[in-house]
Structure of LacI family transcriptional regulator:
Amino acid sequence: MDKPATIKDVAELARVHAATASRALNPQTRDKVSPRTAARIVEAARALGYSPNSAARSLRTRTSSVVGVVIPDLRNPVFPPIVRGVEDALREAGYLALLGNTDGDAERERDLLATMRGQQLAGFILATSKRDGVPLGPDVSVVLVNRRTDAGDVASVVADSGAGVRALVNLLVERGHSRIGHLAGPQDTSTGVERYRAFLDGLSAHGLTPSGVEFCDAFSEQAGYDATRRLLAGGVSVTAIVAGNDMIALGCYGALAELGLRCPEDVSVTGFNDMPFVDKQRPALTTVRIPHYDIGYEAARLLLERIADPSSPPKRLVLPVELIERNSVARVALSDPPNARTGQN
Amino acid sequence: MDKPATIKDVAELARVHAATASRALNPQTRDKVSPRTAARIVEAARALGYSPNSAARSLRTRTSSVVGVVIPDLRNPVFPPIVRGVEDALREAGYLALLGNTDGDAERERDLLATMRGQQLAGFILATSKRDGVPLGPDVSVVLVNRRTDAGDVASVVADSGAGVRALVNLLVERGHSRIGHLAGPQDTSTGVERYRAFLDGLSAHGLTPSGVEFCDAFSEQAGYDATRRLLAGGVSVTAIVAGNDMIALGCYGALAELGLRCPEDVSVTGFNDMPFVDKQRPALTTVRIPHYDIGYEAARLLLERIADPSSPPKRLVLPVELIERNSVARVALSDPPNARTGQN
């Protein structure tokens, strides 16, 4: 095989000093070189197949160009577009993403973080954290994605849960619903507690109180199924259920079908996230769209900022959401005579 | 903060020599230590929060405990369970997964592989490769996932495309179909060409020939939509369409709906992969289930074998598939009088 290209070869081809080439090829110093020159150097490096020995650089600088991305489970459809956004933003800056799943298990998360820390990573993006803090020291650059801490001491990117849930409640009330229940997400997560509070606030703004709340121990279909069974087993009468997220809503669909209740004719259901394929469910799910890809992309951008300047204050970014009306919410028209059209044709 | 724990601290707590502790904590030498002793050492390391300095080890051994996982796009629902299987198998061996998306773009793939190679990775799992080979030298440990090369010179884990497509064709013929078209996947991929050949073989076994074949330039919904429009624009009359995979089948659903053709009443459609949520489509898709998670898991196991013994011959693993009958295939009963039951009740 050919001798591998060196930084000097790259500098020569790009007609710059070796030090300039080195700066341009290191994501952490690239902004010290003019964009046009940096582009020429990157092009030259590519043409020569130049590959910086990152292991050597890592040992010298004590960090690598690799970021740990820790999520509960990639098979939850919310995460692939978030992770894709993270990876795209990292790649643009010459960084790579080391991916790990925790299944929401604290021990698995501890192990994973310890193994990742052994790699001298540049920082972490965590989608797993609880409200009470992150299991990493203050010496580590961290951005939370789709989560935040109560103390607000960690940088984060989230969607506007409050605005989303209030929009869902307003829609239900407009459609005539007043007996509305909630399947709340886990209350040790920021999204679980923020959506629950927004549900109470939203009802309160219309002078209503909840017709039943059940708490799910996970943002999962199974937890949504179980919570729906508990909600309705108590003899609670609701015409609508606001689920903590889409997965919980799908579990609710399953439980309603088993109980012989039709959605939306008997019970309207709403979700949260607009994850892929909920538009293809029966009925298509009315939900709140969060900008999954942008959340991941912005989280990676924030992390790169923090890596460049670890002393900067932790920003908290809230991205807007959008109400997506489909077919899982019916109008309640109490004054209609029952079966008004029966017998006419 | 406390001084970080050293390998000596770990050895002392586990009552072994430092060399034994070191072997037990290195995935590549762990099997030289008895499982019980290794477990005790790992437990001691965890208790002390010991984190091996992998960057230093990497420079010494010229490889890390990190594997590159390269896929087209994580947002294609086939990949999350595969990647999750990869990550689980790697984690069990103390390895981590560096994830990258290529969008099927050759230049993006070259860049990504060059950047990853700069990290002295232990090996690669590629879901992106074409039939003509892999863009990595023979000095690199590689396993292909859901893909293989014509030459068979690279280790791979795939599902049995041939058996799956033949089962679909048999089902259609049993249901009375004889005018069957195919929306073939890209012919520079092994799955595209293997399924196309199996389609021809399957028809031939029943003395049939294809009623039209269109080739998709990607395994995507858009490509499936376009190919369906081309197939039917030519005035081809089919009662069933075998799509190259589920994404292509979803594009076919969209095109049929636009053309005012009902599925399955006018045209039956089949997919391939049984990706998440095709059971919730309208109609629920008849398809072939591949063991996504197992494919990923086995690919990582194969790669770890090759890392341990790079001179071993490249294994090719084919995993069995399962026909999943849902509602997208109708019976064609040419001899039934039309609307036979009309007027009887």
Q: What stands out?
A: The longest strand of chain A covers residues 66-71. The two ends of chain A are 83 Å apart (CA to CA). DSSP finds eleven helices and twelve strands in chain A. Chain A has three domains: 7-52, 63-159+292-322, 161-289.
